[in-house]
Amino acid sequence: MTPIYLDYNATTPLDPAVIEAMLPYLREHFGNPSSTHQYGKTAHEAVEKARIQVAELLGARPDEIVFTGGGTEATNHALKGVIFAKPTDGRPWACDAHIITSTVEHPATLQTCDFLKRLGCKITVLPVDRYGLVDPGDVLKAMDRKTTLVSIMHANNEVGPTPLNRSARFRSMSMSWAWTCCRWPVTNYMRRKESAPCTFVGASSWSH
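Above: the chain sequence. Below: its structure as tokens.
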């Protein structure tokens, strides 16, 4: 019996257009982009071109785009980066930090929050309703003067987009776009005037 693959939210076959775009760099342009020889320079130019393309997709600047090995690394970079960089005036930095997240986040988010909690960071984990969605009002109620970051996925891989992606007005926010980039409009999230002074700290990568 031939199996039917129904796990496309976990991973998918590569799009033929992606294969075509990548083949030159898997065959002849295989240099390390950090190398100074011609092979490296060619690969470096391709990486920088990709950085510009991603920035245009998100409405961001190219120097705001950081490539990682995957969504888990991107999430760690966003959460730990914001907390570790928070000014503390000489006090233990974690004691002045507060992250708000939800019960349905990816383990990469929840386990990172658990790690930061052990260091003294306050973590608020919000429940979801029967549709698996976070109420934006609950987020606002959970916020206080020490809230450093709100980390809620842009969309859940089973129930779809969260209402936060349409109405967020938070000071600092990290959203995982692993399931929505190229599937759901995300352009200009980094530059939305109505959300100022919201700062989108990190977005998970996507592969296919």
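The beta strands are 98-102, 122-126, 147-151, 155-156, 160-161, 172-174, 199-200.
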